[in-house]
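Reply to dn_fold:

You asked what the input looked like. This is it:
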Amino acid sequence: MKYYLEKNKDKIIAKYLQGGQGNLSASIIKSVHINLPFTEEQLKISNLIKKVESLISLQQRKLEQLKQLKKAMLQQLFVDKNSKQPNLRFKNFNGEWEQRKLGTVGKTQSGIGFPTKEQGGQKGVPFFKVSDMNNNGNEFEMTTSNNYVTEQQIISKKWKTITKVPAVIFAKVGAALMLNRKRLVTVPFLIDNNTMAYMFGKNWDPYFGKVLFDTLNLPKYAQTGALPSFNGSDIENIKVMFPTQVEQQIIGCFFESINGLITHQQNKLTQLTTLKKYLLQNLFI
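and this is what came back:
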């Protein structure tokens, strides 16, 4: 009965909605007509969906454990503002990390205007907007875009493609800035004017750099006003601590592995959730 109502709740609410607040009375629920199979079939259906739900719960726990592991390792493997060495080091690494301003080891670049009539392309150079960070598969690195532009468009509009990659991108204005999301980009790209990129210099391992950016609370550095915003100097003046490139590579590789596991578990969870939805749609009248 739980699964039956879960599958049909929208139809029931749409048909029997009462009042401006959307109240459903007990008498209305009692009057709802439903189709029921024999008890034996009900049990087989419910047992199957319960097994899928059990797997969903298991995957959710695994996913949360991996996220907690990543959070703990971010705290242990990176230097905080009061020290020059992290609490945890990989074998054979020692010595103090160096402090640098981001502007001395990389460069920022703001995005450009992206007229609506130029949007919607499916091939060419990706033109990222902040909303593209929500795409499946873009949780760590930008692998897909909702908009691509051709070489002809780029020449016509005199746009300058950002070719110095890898880079990390993030929102530079408004409410999206406060979400503090960053994404790695490893192919030439363009960004709109609500977005900013930081291009890593030669002293960086890009995966380490992306994870280091994950440790930064960027909204802290935003200019206040009608809308919070960054300019390039706000980011380039941020002081960070980082080690030799060899240690960067080890740390970056470690977190790349954790991110891969998180993505794998997220995909399995999505598949199981889709399976449950399919069963609800096809095992009930």
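The first strand starts at residue 98 and ends at 101.
Hope that clears it up.
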